[in-house]
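User: Please predict the structure of the protein below. I'd like the answer in C-alpha cell form so I can feed it into my own downstream comparison script.

Assistant: Understood. Taking the following sequence of 84 residues as input:
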Amino acid sequence: MSALPNDLTSTAGFVVSDVSGKVVGRVECPMYGTTPNVPDALAVRAGRFSRHRHLVPADTIREINAPGRVIELRVAREAIRRFL
C-alpha cells in the first residue's frame, strides 16, 4: 500500500516503526496543517503513560500495512521531532 495523505485519516491505533524496525509508538491521531481536510502528519505517543509525542510527517512514511496495522518509516527514531 502507498502512503498517501488520505490513508492517514484512519490510522489511529496503528503501531509506528522506524527504518530499523524499532517501535516508535502508536498513532494517536492525524494532524492537519496546510489544508483542513488532508492530514500531513501523525501524532505518535511513545508509551501508555508517556506525556511526549512524536510528530511524524507524511513524507517520512514508507509504507502503511493496513491488515497488520503497522506504519513503517523511512527515517530513524532520532530524526523524528518530539512535542508535548
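That's the full C-alpha cell string. The chain has one domain: 5-83.
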